[in-house]
Amino acid sequence: MNVHPALVTGFVPYGGRRSNPAAEIAAALDGTTIAGVPVVGRPLPVSLAEIGDRIAGLLEDLQPRVVVSVGLSPGEAVIRIERVGLNLADFGTADNAGQVALDEPLLGNGAAARWATLPIRKIETALLEAGIPARISNSAGTFLCNACLYTFLSLADEAREPIACGFIHVPYMPEQVAEMLGVVKRHGRQASGSDVASMALATSTQAVAIAVETALRETR
Fold first, then answer.
1. How far, in Å, CA of 35 to CA of 193, rounded?
2. Residues 191, 139, 77, CA angle at the centre, nearest 5°?
């Protein structure tokens, strides 16, 4: 591409869920323009075996100047801006390919951790000023969201031109929570407060757009 775009990625549904706000956000922002820069939105597989090649292909094909990856954080009530990715895959719940991982490095000779290169503090401030609840997080977990962040940062470090990369966790969509509550009710149980947090998809999408805009303005 002649113009280095902003790339937004979002994971496809996983864990038996029928939807994932992350993929919907990426699709909603695909083809838009933010701060005069075209935005490309792409889905990511929830598969440890596939994600590395998918990320490498996106970076090679698009050569973005900013990458904002998005994932679902079940039970989270606010937008979470991740600070660091770990060189670790450790999850007992299988990914969409049926794989589990125990204390596995993502990159054998890679750094133990990599800092997000998005302007996370300025993104947090911009979101709060827009009336969107947000906070900086010091752990992206050890599932595919962390793998995504660490892999993007590792590959971006080898790119010909600087790429600002980071990861944002978003809450459930309200309709997802409503569906879960219906299932819980049919089984005669009651959901805990942490299970029912949600955020409208439009708000989560706005939050990611603000993150992209802030990153683009800071990296000019």
1. 38
2. 35
What element of type H or E holds 169? Answer: strand 164-170
pTM for the predicted model, two decimal places:
0.95
Q: In whole angstroms, what is the distance from residue 167 CA to residue 117 CA? A: 10
Count other C-beta atoms under 10 Å from residue 193's C-beta. Answer: 8
Give dist(CA 215, CA 67) in Å, integer: 9
Task: Give the residue among 73, 93, 47 at the shortest CA–CA distance from 137.
Answer: 73
How does pLDDT run along the chain (220 residues), one tens digit per residue?
468 999 999 999 999 999 999 999 999 999 999 999 999 999 999 999 999 999 999 999 999 999 999 999 999 999 999 999 999 999 999 999 999 999 999 999 999 999 999 999 999 999 999 999 999 999 999 999 999 999 999 999 999 899 999 999 999 999 999 998 888 778 777 666 657 899 999 999 999 999 999 999 998 7
* Spatial separation of the C-alpha atoms in residues 99 and 187, rounded to whole Å: 29
Catalytic machinery residues: 82, 145, 169
Position 191, amino acid: A
Q: Find tokens 């309200």 and name the residue.
A: 174
